[in-house]
Amino acid sequence: MKVNLKINGALTTVEVDDDTPLLWVLRDTLKMKGTKYGCGIGQCGACTVIADFQATRSCSLAASAAVGLDITTIEGLSRDADQFVQKAWQDLRVPQCGYCQSGMIMAVTALLSKSSDPTDDEIDREITNICRCGTYERIRAAIHAAANNRI
Predict the structure, then answer these.
(1) Which CDD domains does the UniProt entry name for this protein (predicted)?
(2) Contact criterion met (CB below 8 Å) for 34 and 106
């Protein structure tokens, strides 16, 4: 089936089964490797993209269900990795292994588009991505730094 998608501001048509998860369209069909596979069931958040300003787990969103959505991947935030959340991540040295970080950055970007100065409770509620290295203190600090433009 031909599926028309808007990814990072560009319209693209892919031919995939209609139930193919968006994650595999991004990674395998479009060769956009920034969005990671983690668990495959929408729990870990490594595959998070932004769809119509909402953090969305791309492993559980069928390509056919993504038609009409404005999808942003980690590649679409900035060509030079200097988007404000990415910069906070770099300046505060958030990642260790880095595997979860693209999904985490996407979730945080979506949160900060809705709440310019989130409380710790909002962060706990909205950022449900899992970091297997446990850099949560640095993640929280980077969220606050990005929100406060201290970076």
Answers:
(1) fer2
(2) no
Low-confidence ranges of the chain (pLDDT < 50): none
Give the separation between CA 45 and CA 35, rounded to whole angstroms.
10
Using CB atoms within 10 A of its CB, is residue 3 exposed (0-12), middle (13-18) or buried (19+)? buried
pLDDT tens-digit series, residues 127-148: 999 999 999 999 999 999 999 9
Please report the domains of the chain, with CATH numbers, ordered by start residue.
2-77 (3.10.20.30), 84-147 (1.10.150.120)
According to DSSP, the residues that pair with 5 across neighbouring strands are: 12
Q: Answer whether 22's CB lies under 8 Å from 66's CB.
A: yes
Round to whole Å and give the CA distance between 56 and 39.
14
